[in-house]
Amino acid sequence: MPLLKIFHKFPRVCVLAIPLFLTAACSGSVDTDIFSVFGSSKPPLPCPRVEVLPGAETITIFREGEGRDLVDVRFEGIIVPFSGQCQYVDDDTAVVVELILRIGATKGPAAESQTEEFPFFVAIAERSGEILAKEVFYSPLEVEEGRRRATVQEELQQRIPLTGLKTGGDYVIIIGFQLTREQMELQS
Fold first, then answer.
1. Banded model confidence at residue 53, pLDDT cuts 50, 70, 90
2. Which CA distances in Å does 177 have to 63, 76, 82, 127, 187?
3. How far is residue 118's CA from residue 151's CA, in Å, rounded to a whole number?
4. Residue 11's CB: how many other CB atoms inside 10 A?
5. Are 134 and 128 a contacting pair, CB within 8 Å?
6. For 81-94, what is each residue's pLDDT tens digit?
7. Interatomic CA distance for residues 160 and 72, integer angstroms
8. What are the structural domain ranges in the chain?
């Protein structure tokens, strides 16, 4: 029976509480920003997407000459998982992306030295696919004597100027090995 008495009084409590909540809701200013509750005055802006160009994630470097068999391989390389971060600078008019790229290599039977330079590129494109900038780099990699495999880490920084309403999310950073025409044909 006491439960029924509480239930009957509940609508009266709600009627009295509604004006209290409405008054509390009006106590903020018009320019109250929901993100300021979490310590930031604006939502975080997105970083550019980073991807490895399909077909350019591996490279096979053959010795000079005609042979293109397994015995003719000097080195094979692969772009292994990468990491990175971005930061907006200059009042959000540019985004700086810091990447850590790792290249793994295996020494082949035709290798005449312990070192090889691996050509790779970094390109900045719009989401539509239009390439805005591209640069080729060369990463020297040395395999220790008595070993067949090694990895090198490259630290890169890309600065993307932002115009209009664009954010880092409107861009894609594409990485891959800079393949020759012959290497591209052998990959497919």
1. very high
2. 18, 11, 14, 21, 12
3. 11
4. 9
5. no
6. 778 999 999 988 99
7. 41
8. 2-33, 49-187
Strands 94-107 and 49-52: unpaired
Record the tokens describing residue 19, joined without a space.
């004006």
CA distances in angstroms from 148 to 102, 139, 141, 142, listed in the order given: 17, 18, 12, 10
- The CATH architecture to which 49-187 belongs is Sandwich (2.60)
Question: How far is Cα 168 from Cα 11, in angstroms, rounded to an integer?
Answer: 52
How many Cβ atoms sit within 10 Å of the Cβ of residue 144? 9
DSSP class per residue in 101-142: EEEEEEE-TT--SSEEEEEEEEEEEETTS-EEEEEEEEEEEE
Residue 143 has pLDDT above 90, yes or no: yes
Q: Residue 32: is its pLDDT beyond 60?
A: no
Token pair 């000079």 is found at 64
What pLDDT digit, counting tens, does each position of 41-50 carry?
Answer: 677 899 999 9
